[in-house]
Amino acid sequence: MKYSVFSLFRHSLSGHKNWEPAWREPAPKAEYDIVIVGGGGHGLATAYYLAKEFGLRNVAVLEKGWLGSGNIGRNTTIIRSNYMLPGNNPFYELSMKLWESLEQDFNFNAMVSQRGVLNLCHSDPQRDAFARRGNAMRIDGVDAELLDAHAVREMYPFFDFDNPRFPIKGGLLQRRGGTVRHDAVAWGYARGADQHGVDIIQHCEVKGIKIEKGKAVGVETSRGFIRCKKLALATAGNSSETAAMAGLKLPVESHVLQAFVSEGLKPFIDGVVTFGAGHFYVSQSDKGGLVFGGDIDGYNSYARRGNLPMIEHVIEAGVAMIPALARVRVLRSWGGIMDMSMDGSPIIDKTPVGGLYLNTGWCYGGFKATPASGYCFAHLIARDEPKDVASHYRLDRFRRGYLIDEKGQGATPNLH
Ligand SMILES: Cc1cc2nc3c(=O)[nH]c(=O)nc-3n(C[C@H](O)[C@H](O)[C@H](O)COP(=O)(O)OP(=O)(O)OC[C@H]3O[C@@H](n4cnc5c(N)ncnc54)[C@H](O)[C@@H]3O)c2cc1C
Predict the structure, then answer these.
(1) Does residue 336 line the site of ligand 1, with CB under 6 A?
(2) CA distances from 403 to 129, 233, 406 (A)
(3) Which of the two ends of the chain, N or C, has the fewest CB atoms closer than 10 A to its terminal CB?
(4) Assign residue 295 a region: left if phi > 0, alpha if psi is -120 to 50, beta otherwise?
(5) Of 88, 119, 235, 260, which is best to mutate to test ligand 1, by the most ligand atoms within 8 angstroms of its C-beta?
């Protein structure tokens, strides 16, 4: 069923009671050409592009919970391509270009809103670093504008510009950055993949990987054994656990990241803004709530909830940026499990196990990468060679010393 203004009108005549489900609920088959573990954004996007771009339709996505129950439905919805390093920038710009045509492509309203992402700077050296980043972006054909404090004040007069500790000196603006409704991305890709024949199987947990003669040949699941020719892991925060089923130890740690939503307010922040003197990022949803977040809780965990000290830390940074926030009430908070890699950049690669492919290490930046990650992972699985813009995201780069350390923080996951 194609969604359009005409189908909306037609269904209104029958009280919207006859819409078809957006995707089927098939029983798992005994065998598929390709099994993807993880029905988050990346797994679903991979299935969609495998079917649509590479004509591979005998594909299943196995999800242990429900679609959108993982990080795809828990993030703060920010998209941007303001990266600096050659290994990262072209990849994230491909993702931005795919976002720009995504809704027409999969015929689903994902509320892509290019409202601008502004990173604030608070010292002269930080402004120099932003100028360098902006220049690197422009060399790669990505939009970037360096703003002085006056230009930022024109946009957001209520920021604390003269804060004695963190004065605002300016910012780096990417106007094409913005937000996308996160769970609609999962639904749109699921619907698109389903229409191309992919089986999306919810409540099907992978508990083991069967390896014969060094090759992955199937998975033990809560709904029985499923054989496959190729197996792809896209399990984000659970990557270490699923990879361990094939005997692999990943350079990835799992940490909790929290997100917060305030009570509804009249619109006053029309873009995404990040505080440069601490870790705080905020945007305002169409319902009026401020959607914001900050650092990860600094310990390893698989619990999808965080702790109070980090809430205090995040809100302190927010109030340093916008003092009026002190009067706003927080309505909701939750956590997601982050797959923190050792250099802050992802892994899209084959593994030493035959027929086993890996997509992980997204830290807290994987939502914006969803379309490019899906496209590049599908390319790798279908052709057995990496797509050019993802060719640096190798699993063995840590052993070889070819890190893609965008922040220059070294092998310290909680700093990335
Ligand atoms: C609070 C928060 C804020 C964030 N903010 C942003 C942001 O603003 N911008 C940005 O770019 N990124 C952000 N991120 C990061 C982003 O959400 C993730 O990097 C990205 O969603 C991870 O990819 P995914 O969507 O495939 O993950 P997920 O949705 O987590 O998908 C992985 C799936 O694998 C399933 N799974 C795991 N183990 C198994 C198993 N054994 N069998 C079957 N299924 C299994 C899980 O249930 C899960 O559904 C944020 C994350 C969080 C938690």
Answers:
(1) yes
(2) 20, 22, 9
(3) N
(4) beta
(5) 235
In this prediction, residue 410 carries a pLDDT of 86
Our answer on whether the CB atom of 134 is closer than 6 Å to any ligand 1 atom is no
pLDDT at 47: 98
Residues of the chain with pLDDT under 50: none
Assess whether the C-beta atom of 235 lies below 6 angstroms from ligand 1. Answer: yes
Please, are residues 246 and 216 in contact by the beta-carbon 8 Å criterion? Answer: yes
- Three-state SS string over 24-56 comes to CCCCCCCEEEEEEECCCHHHHHHHHHHHHHHCC
Query: Angle at the Cα of 51 (from 396 to 189), degrees rounded to 5?
Result: 85
User: What is the separation of C-alpha 375 from the centre of its chain, rounded to a whole number of angstroms?
Assistant: 14
Would you give the DSSP letter of residue 284? E
Residue count (the chain) = 416
274 touches 120 (CB < 8 A): yes
Taking the centre of ligand 1 as the mean of its atom positions, its distance from the CA of residue 70, in whole angstroms, is 5
pLDDT attached to residue 411: 86
Q: In 3D, which of 102, 120, 119 has the Cα closest to residue 111? A: 102
Q: What is the per-residue pLDDT for 414? A: 83
Q: Which of 75, 255, 345 to mutate to test the pocket of ligand 1 (most atoms within 8 A of CB)?
A: 75
Q: What is the DSSP-derived secondary structure letter of residue 326?
A: G
pLDDT of residue 409: 87
In this structure, how many other beta carbons lie within 10 angstroms of the beta carbon of residue 155? 16
3-state secondary structure 102-165: HHHHHCCCCCCECCCEEEEECCHHHHHHHHHHHHHHHHCCCCCEEEEHHHHHHHCCCCCCCCCC
Count CB neighbours of 150 within 10 A. 9
How many whole angstroms from 336 Cα to the centroid of ligand 1?
Answer: 7
Cross-strand bridge partners of residue 210: 218
CA of 40 to the centre of ligand 1 (A): 6
First CA to last CA across the chain, in angstroms?
A: 42
* pLDDT for 298: 85
Count of helix runs (H) and strand runs (E) in the chain: 10, 18
Q: What are residue 303's phi and psi, to 5 degrees?
A: -85, 140
Task: Please give the distance, rounded to the nearest whole angstrom, from the Cα atom of residue 11 to the centre of ligand 1.
Answer: 34
